[in-house]
Write a structure and sequence with these properties.
Length: 152
């Protein structure tokens, strides 16, 4: 079916960016849970074993689908587990690992992966997330809300 814009300028047919966005978000979630789980495991090697590494990694994966709150909540959970079972110094190291992974994921991996999935330049993804977050809050920070950029 050829592209025919309606009066608003948006296409009449539904695009296929939602499945592509889900694939990109899943890939980003796998990266996040792998790196945080690996960081917790390596930290546990030096401090006598980090408990709940696999449940923390699974929680990071599942919470990665919640735009803003999920990553923060699972990061706090990982740091809390390190504080309770290993002490304050390993908890600070775990906090550093969580912050490093989340910053790399949010500012490097996600724009590259999601931008490639929905065929938008990564800088446009960063600008759309920043603009959407400024205007609409966390609700607008997901990729289907950036769909008009792809059509434009």
């Amino acid at each position: 079916m050829p592209f025919r814009p309606c009066r608003t300028g948006f296409p009449r047919t539904r695009s296929s960016s939602s499945p592509d966005t889900l694939k990109g978000t899943s890939s980003t979630a796998v990266n996040g849970c792998s790196f945080i789980g690996l960081g917790a495991f390596i930290l546990g090697l030096f401090y006598g074993g980090f408990p709940l590494v696999i449940p923390i990694a699974i929680a990071v994966f599942l919470a990665s689908f919640i735009p803003v709150v999920g990553a923060v909540a699972t990061g706090v959970f990982a740091v809390f587990v390190a504080l309770v079972f290993l002490g304050p110094i390993p908890a600070l190291i775990m906090l550093g690992i969580v912050i490093l992974v989340q910053q790399l994921e949010g500012h490097v991996l996600q724009p590259l992966i999601i931008g490639n999935a929905i065929k938008v330049h990564p800088v446009a993804v960063v600008l759309a997330v920043a603009t959407g977050g400024f205007i609409g809050g966390p609700v607008v920070r997901n990729a289907p809300a950036r769909e008009p950029l792809r059509q434009w």
